Amino acid sequence: MKYLVIVSTLFVIGSLIGWIIELFFRRFVSQKKWVNPGFLLGPYLPIYGFGVLVLYAVSNIPLGITNEIWDMVIRILIIGIGMTVVEFIAGLIFIKGLKVKLWDYSKRKGNIMGIICPSFSLIWLIVGSLYYFLLNPLLVRGITWISENLIYTYFIGMVMGAMVVDFAYSLHLATKLKEYKEIADLRFEDFKKELRNRIKQLRKSKEG
């Protein structure tokens, strides 16, 4: 039970914070406007939830390395690789399953299928280093406290439930859209426009 609470809490925290980061990144850096950065309707990005699980696990699981410096270096390298793998798997699932690009690195050097690239792997490495040195000790204490005060897990349970319902609904819409119109490697923003148009059409047909 304790480990389930820890995993769920980490996933929810990562998903919520990741959504906030992407929201402001798209507003002030990439797209210069407010857009929902997620595939889901709600304010959460599950890919960041999985990323935080990787960060937490690699930062705290014993590696059996006696040299403290090498232990630190190996952990940071594993974090960079692990975050890149999470990004690649998530991107591949959507490209192969729904023909949708959640992001596109195709114009960056050394990219693989436009999903991952060396420059963003370096960014994940830097982010992982900052997490390891600055945030992990605080997060460990916070997670330990929550796991010992289970009343606060009701909030985690509600968010997880909302995410599951949201995911099922969004996946249903995406599947319907895929049946309605053949799309190949559709950009994420265009995909969401298609979803909105399809929803409007469905509503009009019901009203009619």
Give a concise summary.
The chain is mainly α.
For the structure shown, list the relevant keywords.
208 residues, mainly alpha, two-stranded parallel sheet, 6 helices, 2% strand, globular
Provide structural commentary:
- With about 210 residues, the chain is an all-alpha fold.
- Helix content is about 75%, strand content about 0%.
- It contains 6 helices and 2 strands; from the N terminus they run αααβααβα.
- The chain has a two-stranded parallel ribbon with strand order 1-2.
- Helix 1 crosses helix 2, helix 1 crosses helix 5 and helix 3 crosses helix 4.
- The longest helix has about 30 residues.
- The protein starts with a helix and ends with a helix.
- The mean pLDDT is about 85.
Strand content: under 5%
**What is the number of E strands?**
2
Strand order across the largest sheet:
1-2
Q: List the secondary-structure elements in sequence, H or E.
A: HHHEHHEH
**Low-confidence runs:** none
What is the topology?
Blueprint lengths: L1 H29 L15 H15 L7 H31 L1 E2 L16 H31 L4 H28 L5 E2 H20 L1
Parallel strand pairs: 1-2
Helix pairs in contact: 1-2, 1-4, 1-5, 2-3, 3-4
